[in-house]
Specification:
- The structure is a single chain.
- The protein has 259 residues and is mainly alpha-helical.
- The chain has one domain.
- The model has no long low-confidence stretch (mean pLDDT 81).
Length: 259
């Protein structure tokens, strides 16, 4: 049976994912925690599968439009997938990584950091452009290594909190590829990168019985049509004002989770 309150939350988040490439964890996890009172572990576990399935629906459209930067995706995967797999292995072995109090605070901190990153993104891009233009060979040499390292950080964040693949990843790519990643390519690249990462990170929680299947179905009932609509609209608008509004919402959600 579809719970339409969950479906409405899925619709809102799915549309933002399709339009901006972010929000799978940074929006949905705080929504589940704050508005529905879901426990942190269940929220993280269910949101990982919500994000993975929702982004599969949006990725096809972005790929068809030729916006996915596959070289960047592969570099991110080289760092994120092994680290997420390690966390999953530890969870499967019964390691008590997920403490409720720690996890709640961790989600709040990551959401706040990503909100700040979105707000300072224009200055970050300008700084990165100066570095790339001023020291092009050195910057290019370090790009691949730093991208893999960024992926590793995202793998840990996503596996533990379900937050980071979209918002935090976008901020990292804006710095690492200021001349190469256009807004549309950024959205598409982040969506594709997040799919196997969310699936791998979600496996440990699935095997541990932490995923709420009924809630997941209700969320997806709203998100799948919405992410398709958002993905089609993404190629027609810049989305800068949405990113600013999203940063404000994330900052408020992060503070509320922490306080």
């Amino acid at each position: 049976m579809i719970d339409w309150s969950y479906a409405a939350a899925g619709t809102f988040t799915g549309f933002i994912i399709g339009l901006t490439g972010v929000g799978g964890g940074a929006l949905m996890t705080p929504i589940l925690l704050l508005f529905f009172g879901i426990s942190p572990t269940t929220a993280v576990a269910t949101d990982l599968w919500f994000a993975a399935i929702t982004k599969i629906a949006g990725a096809r459209i972005h790929h068809t439009n030729g916006n996915v930067d596959w070289q960047v995706v592969k570099r991110l995967w080289a760092g994120s997938l092994p680290m997420a797999s390690l966390i999953v292995l530890l969870i499967s072995m019964g390691t008590h990584i997920v403490k409720v109090d720690w996890l709640t605070k961790g989600i709040g901190i990551v959401v706040l950091v990503t909100a700040i990153g979105l707000l300072v993104a224009p200055r970050l891009i300008a700084f990165a452009k100066r570095k790339q233009i001023g020291q092009p060979e050195r910057f290019k040499t370090m790009q691949a290594v730093l991208t893999i390292f960024a992926g590793a950080i995202l793998g840990v964040c996503v596996a533990l909190t379900s937050v980071g693949a979209g918002v935090l990843g976008s901020v990292m790519l804006l710095y690492l590829y200021p001349l190469r990643i256009t807004p549309h390519r950024l959205v598409a690249t982040e969506i594709v990168h997040a799919i196997p990462l969310a699936i791998i990170a979600g496996l440990g929680y699935l095997f541990a019985g932490m995923v709420d299947g009924e809630m997941l179905i209700s969320l997806l009932a709203g998100s799948i049509p919405a992410v398709i609509a958002g993905s089609k609209l993404a190629s027609r608008i810049t989305g800068q004002w949405i990113r600013f509004a999203l940063a404000i919402v994330l900052a408020a959600a992060g503070l509320k989770v922490l306080l």
